[in-house]
Amino acid sequence: MAIPMGRRRGDGQRRASFDLRRTSFGFALVALIVAGGGVTLRAAWHSAVRHPFLAALVVLPLLAGAYLVLRRRRRARRVAEAVTEAAYGIVEVGLAELDAAEAARAEARLAPPEPTGHPVDYSQLDPYAFEEAVAELCRRDGCADAEVVGGAGDLGADVVGTTPDGRRLVVQCKRYGPENRAGSQDLQRFGGTCYAVHAADVALVVSTGGFTEPALDYAEQCAILCYGPEELAAWSEGGAPPPWEALAPAERPDAGVGGL
């Protein structure tokens, strides 16, 4: 005879029954805590009414402790705010000093040398200041629109302007030391762009280190003016006319000559 067997409860049902008991027990415990807390507060209130002095002895230290905690927090907050403001002030002063130093360096780098009555040692200038000094010489002698355009991708043109008689001036500046002269490769690179790319009527290379003989030979073939330290000093001190006056308009070569 088959004996009917009850279906076993699954794990999920057992867990559900267990959780229900735990939940019920939790609610009961919370209810007891709330009820106990209410009874305790009620008893404390009645005790305070009956014995106000004792209640004051208990409450005053609690209030004093809370006040000290709040005061310490406020003091800590004030200290933190003061430290933060001081740090911001130090950072602002530092940034201002950095900006002033950078502006001074930029001004010193770009400002042309002031006339002192003595020959200027252009080799002591950094490359940027040297380019600006050459541009200032051009402006002084009539190229009012002369400006520095040198930089990445300038294709050999550091200073450009218009001469008083309307010709386009293109200048390459080589701030070299006395032992480093501009060579024929420097002149060839400039010759390949000064006429064909920059449409120069007057092409000028200024080198504080002078030029090699092959460079001077190439420059003569392409009608490129070369100013070394002596020519630059004479031009700067007014002992020689501006470079463009040494090249008549008829001497400008064709655009294709620069690519030799």
Describe the structure.
The protein has 260 residues and is an alpha/beta fold. It folds into 2 domains: 24-110; 122-259, Trna Endonuclease, Chain: A, domain 1. Helices cover 55% and strands 9% of the residues. The chain is built from 6 helices and 5 strands. The longest helix is centred in the first third of the chain and has 59 residues, at 52-110. The radius of gyration is 45 Å and the shape is rod-shaped. The termini are far apart.
CATH class of the largest domain reads Alpha Beta
Low-confidence stretches: 9-17, 108-113, 255-260
Q: Report the CATH topology name of the largest domain.
A: Trna Endonuclease, Chain: A, domain 1
Based on CA atoms alone, the radius of gyration comes out at 45 Å
Total of DSSP H or I helical runs spanning 4+ residues: 6
What is the SS-derived class?
alpha/beta
SSE run: HHHEEEHEHEH
Number of strands: 5
Supply the CATH architecture of the largest domain: 3-Layer(aba) Sandwich
Distance between the termini: 119 Å
User: In what order do the strands lie side by side in the largest sheet?
Assistant: 1-2-3-4-5
Organism: Streptomyces californicus
GO molecular function: endonuclease activity
Keywords: Endonuclease, Hydrolase, Membrane, Nuclease, Transmembrane, Transmembrane helix
Transmembrane segments: 24-45, 51-70
